[in-house]
Write a structure and sequence with these properties.
By secondary structure, the protein is of the alpha+beta class. The protein has twelve helices and ten strands.
Length: 382
């Protein structure tokens, strides 16, 4: 059997061989921060010969400055804190400095060396992660560029959607005006002619007179129905109250009309408060708010199965008025997944309309607990 004393040099040799064979840089420091050993990979990475590193203060030699060149105080050094404060570390956002004054991105770890329970120094492993950092930076730049392009394309699509909506509104207004001016006038004239005929049937015999009178009455009823339907079509295309009396009156009128139409199934209330001095918005913003309100009411009628609906409009005072529109129902509710589904075109349309003018639509709902839709719209425009 070999003497026990011979085992130590053999163990050291094997440890040295292990350190020299690894691709990571490894060095040890004593309690003064001076290098006690460094492997070949570490010395080559740092650009020093082994004998030039041994005994040197490693912070002053390779860790003296931050990535931007600013001084790195030794008291803040995580490598030294491993034995001074008992704080092991693993860092990947700093640099180490080479003998030629250049720096490289490094990932390093520092752990205290213990001997009989006492701290004798620290062992540090490090690797050059410059390529990894360059790849991450390239990936980040690529992601930033992609996000920029997506944001730009989204903005373009929103502008296109708003333009198309403006074109549709213009076309609705034109059709509504033509229906009112031409078809409406024609029906009224026809109604007057029928009345004229009815007043003159008295010149015929009684049987013919009664038959002709009945016919005229039926024609008059049909014309009245046609006039009502034309009026409803005009209102759906472009409510004249929106142009003549403004958004506040249009919203109140729409709420009352909707509640009156749903009176057999839904009980409701309307509350409106507009601060003094706030003029109703015009143009695209007013149309957007009105169409969003119509869509909300339409969704309640089609899907909510509600018994009670509360409609509330509040408009802040100048100089930065904000419109708050809330529609609350006690219906069956729905899940967030349904509201966020890409095929929920009505919800998506409301959100896009609001976003174009700097507003937002928030929907709170849960199965069995009804739904609350809130529109918040700054009235200064986009």
């Amino acid at each position: 059997m070999r003497p026990a004393a011979d085992v130590v040099p053999d163990g050291i040799d094997r440890l040295t061989l292990l350190l020299e064979s690894t691709g990571e840089g490894v060095f040890g420091i004593d309690l003064d921060g001076r290098c006690t050993f460094v492997n070949r990979a570490g010395a080559q990475m740092l650009g020093w010969r082994t004998e030039e590193v041994l005994g040197r203060n490693m912070h002053a030699l390779i860790h003296h400055s931050r990535p931007d060149g600013a001084h790195y105080p030794e008291c803040e050094c995580p490598i030294f804190n491993a034995f001074r404060r008992g704080l092991p570390c693993r860092i990947d956002d700093e640099v180490l400095w080479r003998a030629d004054g250049s720096a490289f991105s490094a990932e390093y770890s520092s752990y205290p060396i213990l001997d009989g329970g006492e701290v004798r120094g620290a062992v540090v492993t490090f690797v050059d992660i410059s390529e990894r950092k360059a790849a991450q930076a390239l990936l980040q730049r690529t992601n930033d560029e992609l996000e920029r392009r997506v944001a730009e394309r989204t903005r373009e699509l929103r502008e296109l959607a708003n333009h198309l909506e403006a074109v549709r509104e213009t076309e609705r207004k034109r059709i509504a005006r033509e229906i009112h001016d031409e078809l409406g006038s024609l029906l009224v004239a026809l109604k007057m002619d029928v009345n004229w005929m009815e007043r003159r049937v008295g010149r015929r015999d009684e049987a013919s007179r009664n038959e002709l009178a009945a016919k005229c009455q039926r024609m008059g009823g049909l014309i009245d129905t046609a006039v009502d339907k034309v009026g409803r079509i005009i209102t759906d295309l472009r409510p004249s109250i929106l142009d003549h009396q403004g958004l506040w009156a249009a919203l109140e009128w729409q709420a009352q009309e909707w509640l009156q139409g749903a009176a057999d199934e839904i009980d409701g209330s309307v509350q409106l408060h507009v601060s003094a001095g706030v003029a109703p918005p015009e143009g695209g913003l007013a149309i957007a708010v009105f169409r969003i309100f119509q869509e909300v009411l339409s969704n309640v009628a089609r899907h909510a199965q509600a018994k009670h609906v509360t409609i509330r409009l509040d408009v802040d005072a100048p100089p930065d008025p904000v419109l708050y529109l809330e529609v609350r129902d006690d219906g069956i509710g729905t899940t967030p997944a349904v509201l966020d589904d890409a095929r929920s075109y009505g919800v998506m349309g409301m959100r896009e309309r609001a976003a174009h003018f700097g507003g937002r639509v928030v929907i709170d709902s849960a199965p069995g607990f009804g739904t609350v839709v809130r529109l918040m719209m700054p009235l200064g425009g986009p």
